[in-house]
Amino acid sequence: MMKTSSKNFGFLLTRNLDLFIILIIxxxxxxxxxxxFAVHTLVYGVAxxxxxxxxxxxxxxxxxxxxxxxxxxxxxxFALNYLTDNxxxxxxxxxxxxxxxxxxxxxxxLRRRDPYFSLVxxxxxxxxxxxxxxxxxxxxxxxxxxxxxxxxTLDKSTFYHTVLIPILAILLVLTKIFLxxxxxxxxxxxxxxxxxxxxxxxxxxxxxxxxxxFSSFLAGLIGTQLTLYLxxxxxxxxxxxxxxxxxxxxxxxxxxxxxxxFIGSIIYxxxxxxxxVLLGWHATIYLEGIIGLFLIILMIWFRGGLYRAIYRLxxxxxxxxxxx
Amino acid sequence: xxxxxxxxxxxxxGLMIGTLYAVVSIGxxxxxxxxxxxxxxxxxxxxxxxxxxxxxxxxxxxxxxxxIFASLIISALSxxxxxxxxxxxxxxxxxxxxVIGFGILFVMSSVIKFIWTPEPKSFSPPPLxxxxxxxxxxxxxxxxxxxxxxxxCIFIATWFFINKTMIxxxxxxxxxxxxxxxxxxxNINRIxxxxxxFSSFLAAIGGALxxxxxxxxxxxGHSIILLMFSIVVVGxxxxxxxxxxxxxxxxxxxxxxxxxNPSIAExxxxxLMVIVLLIKPEGLFKK
Lengths: 324, 287
Description:
Mean pLDDT of chain B: 88
Order of helices and strands of chain A: HHHHHHHEHHHHEHHHH
Number of helices of chain A: 15
Helix content of chain A: over 70%
Number of domains of chain B: 1
Oligomer: heterodimer
CATH topology of chain B: ABC transporter involved in vitamin B12 uptake, BtuC
Number of strands of chain B: 2
Shape of chain B: globular
Structural class of chain A: mainly alpha
């Protein structure tokens, strides 16, 4: 009896090694960088994972996921400031707001393939951003950001370890289940050959739509946690300028892998941290250029990403295009 | 209550600025139609051209010289970009061009921040083109009239280039059926290069003409991308006439929305694009 359970555990470990590696990395990360940076690494990592669900697995590059992340943040903030004192309810409101906007965007964005999806998502993002800084400015605080009245306040490090890490674990497991499920397989199939999926009797539009809904759920839920952590929402999170960071994270780490976006996010945030320490306020000038350079170099010469390169060094053979 | 004069004025201004948007978008439309790439770097060339015009205006105070010289520099730059970066991604997946385009755009806006600092800059049009003309009680800035004339000339020249020269006809044929053009033994890479440089030249001229109207800040490139994309979607890709009309429609929608709330004016253009994508995804003027 004992033997089988240990065998099961070993099986679980080897099959889900990437999840455990991510969790261990995030457990030790606050030892090296300030907790706020670690939280941002985690949040951008999960948001990049949401991009990756659409790009790496669904073949649809999105330049609008910052909208989903930001709506999660703002939804919770609105709920806590104007509606309720219940944190769980506020999180639900944030997630629901994200899901509904994701559902609305999906109706238009998924009509046509490649460039249309990315740019219609970007258009949605810019449209909401303009709403946020324009007509809704009295609600959203515009550039100044929005301070949130939290009913309970936790110590930053405690919050990180007791709330964020378990939520990360849950989201990772959910992602794994989603990708291994029938609909996840169909999503991957759609990215490879839409006609064949159609010919075996499935509707590619519905499959991509469900993928987008799951992706918005990921981004929105982690956005709500960011609000709870900071007790503040900045306009940066909903700004279209956050999108390149997410896409960069996916491409650096390796699209089509679960661990890739997190590697990318860690690299981005550590780069950001080092530049901030070295250059202070001027960092923003160089950061954009460095990200741009990386995007060009990655796309032309290293399309696989860092995770694939490391994997090849250790194991000696290539990872497939999609790792579930 | 908004007065009728104001609405008439907004209509005229919207149409005129729309032609300039159209000039900026033609190149985007051409490279989308011919080479099947989303040329986001186009917006970077546009932004760089506005700043170069600003600098040349400060140095020489000669507007014509500034516009032409800025456009020529941008064309040379775009040749290098095409040669060493864009040429590697022809025929590959369109996402590649999207990401590389954004990369180039970010590098350019970083360079702009580095050279010109992030503070907004502005300069006024030359004295000959400033001032206003009154038609009844409607006032039209002279510079807008100049824009209308200049864009019309550019459009006519582009039409001649595409329809009457051998290279232009090849570009047009390539938009219709690329494989057959290759089968005819035409060196398509050279056509791509010419198309790219020509597109960037138009973007640069559009940017240079736009520069006196707007306050220059490093993110102007980012804000023009979606505007160009909306125009191309509304007009249909690769169609010059469609781009012109779509530019005017988008200009009108922006200037009408600006009557009520300027901060969501550009959002209207995106809304228009989304509606067109729903009802006629191939564009309003595509045959």
